[in-house]
């Protein structure tokens, strides 16, 4: 039987509400910086939620020519910028690699929502004549992110976008992992992006009562595990990884950040928006990832949780962790970096994978900020890394992503 190839991370990229590059992102993470503030992208004064985690001081024309950028929705722009940073970071010699064996597998939960919204608003203001931008469809469709990355660099391997709500990026990372370890490709650009700070997104999520309404204090609105959490905070941006066959990476003398050792999937099979009340789907996803990695629960040092700051989701994920890890759950560090970045929806797993890798590299666990009051529904015996980063030995990190529809995906990275 043919054995699986080892898969390693040789490049990372990040475009986030707390930093537009990997070094800036890490600086924000370790210092517990909140990326949340009042919305600037549209007039939100009449909305119940008037804040979000937007990108700061981002000018796409510094990375992509204006004419090209106009043909991309913002979620694709973000994908291209983060992927470019990861490719440069990887040190790949693009002139001398086999581009037939390089794939692009990306994740986005929504795709070009802003493009769709703008075109429909423009149409609604007219006389009913369908004057639609010829780039409307190519900008809107979710696979334009992977398509543009592929075209930009000439990568001719597998090319598609996974859509599984807020587990989309983890889904993409696991798919890329599988293509490489099966020997189908040598390298894959993977990750995820979202640009959902829009009228339709903020309006839709607030209509569901899913988002925080802490308008008087937005910087502390994302409060995972806090008694007074009242919903998630939407974020935007992208994260990118270069995954590579270990032997291929060694042969070219690449630096290696970490090894990706396992990926797990499950479905809650319970409700279209609410998590399973016992956290069963979360438990199955984590167990599947551990089994895939061939490691025991006791080997995990840190869990970057899904931790969105919702009343239902936070305690149920922690319950799943305790049920699966037993007493070891109290020896690990756990944190939700969404307390700083907000929730990037389909792109969340990508920036959280980057955060997990950086935590191992620096042996520092990023904090769960904005914790003020213990919640009796949360197991507060767990080390939730509250309000301040903690130094510790980190050899194995597990990162969760869960989405509407009951989609669950878990990735595990190991220090190498």
TrEMBL record:
UniProt xrefs under SMART domains: PKS_KS
EC number in record: 2.3.1.179
Protein name as catalogued: 3-oxoacyl-[acyl-carrier-protein] synthase 2
Superkingdom of origin organism: Bacteria
One example GO MF annotation: 3-oxoacyl-[acyl-carrier-protein] synthase activity
Domain Ketosynthase family 3 (KS3): 4-415
CDD domains: KAS_I_II
UniProt cross-references to InterPro entries, sorted A to Z: 3-oxoacyl-ACP_synth-2 (IPR017568), Beta-ketoacyl_synthase (IPR000794), Ketoacyl_synth_AS (IPR018201), Ketoacyl_synth_C (IPR014031), Ketoacyl_synth_N (IPR014030), PKS_Beta-ketoAc_synthase_dom (IPR020841), Thiolase-like (IPR016039)
Keywords annotated in UniProt: Acyltransferase, Fatty acid biosynthesis, Fatty acid metabolism, Lipid biosynthesis, Lipid metabolism, Transferase
Pathway: Lipid metabolism; fatty acid biosynthesis
PANTHER family registered for this protein in UniProt: 3-OXOACYL-[ACYL-CARRIER-PROTEIN] SYNTHASE, MITOCHONDRIAL, POLYKETIDE SYNTHASE-RELATED
Gene3D superfamilies associated with the record: 3.40.47.10
Listed Pfam families: ketoacyl-synt (PF00109), Ketoacyl-synt_C (PF02801)
Protein's job: Involved in the type II fatty acid elongation cycle. Catalyzes the elongation of a wide range of acyl-ACP by the addition of two carbons from malonyl-ACP to an acyl acceptor. Can efficiently catalyze the conversion of palmitoleoyl-ACP (cis-hexadec-9-enoyl-ACP) to cis-vaccenoyl-ACP (cis-octadec-11-enoyl-ACP), an essential step in the thermal regulation of fatty acid composition.
Entry annotated with the keyword Zinc-finger: no
Stated family: Belongs to the thiolase-like superfamily. Beta-ketoacyl-ACP synthases family.
Recorded catalytic activity of this chain's protein: (9Z)-hexadecenoyl-[ACP] + malonyl-[ACP] + H(+) = 3-oxo-(11Z)-octadecenoyl-[ACP] + holo-[ACP] + CO2; a fatty acyl-[ACP] + malonyl-[ACP] + H(+) = a 3-oxoacyl-[ACP] + holo-[ACP] + CO2
Protein's organism: Arcicella lustrica
């Amino acid at each position: 039987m043919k054995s699986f190839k080892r898969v390693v991370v040789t490049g990372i990229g990040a475009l986030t509400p707390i930093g537009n590059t990997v070094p800036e992102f890490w600086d924000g993470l370790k210092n517990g910086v909140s990326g949340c503030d009042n919305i600037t992208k549209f007039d939100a004064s009449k909305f119940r939620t008037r804040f979000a985690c937007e990108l700061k001081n981002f000018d796409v024309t510094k990375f992509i020519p204006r004419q090209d950028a106009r043909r991309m929705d913002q979620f694709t722009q973000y994908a291209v910028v983060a992927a470019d940073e990861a490719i440069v970071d990887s040190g790949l010699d693009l002139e001398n690699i086999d581009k037939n064996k390089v794939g692009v597998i990306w994740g986005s939960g929504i795709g070009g929502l802003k493009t769709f919204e703008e075109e429909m608003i423009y149409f609604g203001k007219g006389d009913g004549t369908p004057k639609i931008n010829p780039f409307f469809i190519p900008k809107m469709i979710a696979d334009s992110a992977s398509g543009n990355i592929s075209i930009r660099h000439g990568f001719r391997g597998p090319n598609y976008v996974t859509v599984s709500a807020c587990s989309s990026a983890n889904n993409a990372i696991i798919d890329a992992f599988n293509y490489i370890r099966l020997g189908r490709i040598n390298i894959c650009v993977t990750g995820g992006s979202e640009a959902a700070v829009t009228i339709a997104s903020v309006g839709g999520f607030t209509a569901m009562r899913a988002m925080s309404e802490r308008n008087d204090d937005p910087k502390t609105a994302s409060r995972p595990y806090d008694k007074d959490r009242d919903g998630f905070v939407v974020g935007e941006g992208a994260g990118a990884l270069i995954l590579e066959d270990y032997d291929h990476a060694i042969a070219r003398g690449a630096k290696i950040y970490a090894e990706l050792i396992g990926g797990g999937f499950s479905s809650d099979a319970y409700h279209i928006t609410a998590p399973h009340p016992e956290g069963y789907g979360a438990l199955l996803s984590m167990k599947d990832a551990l089994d895939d990695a061939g490691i025991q629960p006791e080997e995990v040092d840190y869990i970057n949780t899904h931790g969105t700051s919702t009343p239902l989701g936070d305690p149920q994920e922690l319950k799943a962790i305790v049920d699966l890890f037993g007493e070891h759950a109290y020896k690990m560090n756990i944190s939700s970096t969404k307390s700083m970045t907000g929730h990037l929806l389909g792109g969340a797993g990508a920036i959280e994978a980057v955060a997990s890798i950086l935590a191992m590299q620096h042996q520092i666990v990023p904090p769960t900020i904005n914790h003020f009051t213990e919640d009796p529904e949360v197991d507060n015996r767990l080390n939730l890394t509250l309000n301040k980063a903690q130094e510790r030995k980190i050899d194995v990190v597990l990162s969760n992503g869960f989405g509407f529809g009951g989609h669950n995906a878990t990735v595990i990275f190991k220090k190498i």
